[in-house]
Sequence to fold (204 residues):
Amino acid sequence: MEGESERTKQMRTIRDELVVFTDSPLYEYRTANKYHPVVGEGSHDAKIMFIGEAPGKNEAEQGRPFCGAAGRVLEKLLATVSLERRDVYITNIVKDRPPENRDPLPDEIEVYGPFLDRQIDIIQPKVIATLGRFSMDYVMRRLGLAGEIEPISKAHGSVYTAKASYGDVIVIPLYHPAAALYNGSMMSTLEKDFQILKQYAYTL
Fold:
């Protein structure tokens, strides 16, 4: 479209590729249920990029990431550090809903990973906040931090510096917002970890 930024054009290309991504092991499930691929949402110039694991039912129906209950938790957490959805970029590794919201399988992460890699290169975030252990594991391995991976129960709220294609990037593993839906005490942990994000949101 006329007036689109180069980053927006590149994201549109990714979306168009995902719509017809018949090599995906989730393609038939998506089309049978009339779901949408969930590419991502937010600012293409964001300093902070949130990466979850895979879309759920609401997300697949609307084609938007984190638009259900976990998304409401995420928005509350963003508000605690004076950020809004439009200020950041939100996506998942896997772009289609796995059946019954099960965990993404290794082959699904493998086939969708290159799309996420391209999104990171397009947006060039200063901070990548991973949401959940699958996202943490993928991003840290991808950015050369495999040797520093720990269980998320230890790694959450830690700060790692990595080299991306475009320069330095800070990686902050966080629990998935859905954790607070099943365990109320997790909310205070997430709020505390988000304060670490605040240090970077206005200084980078």
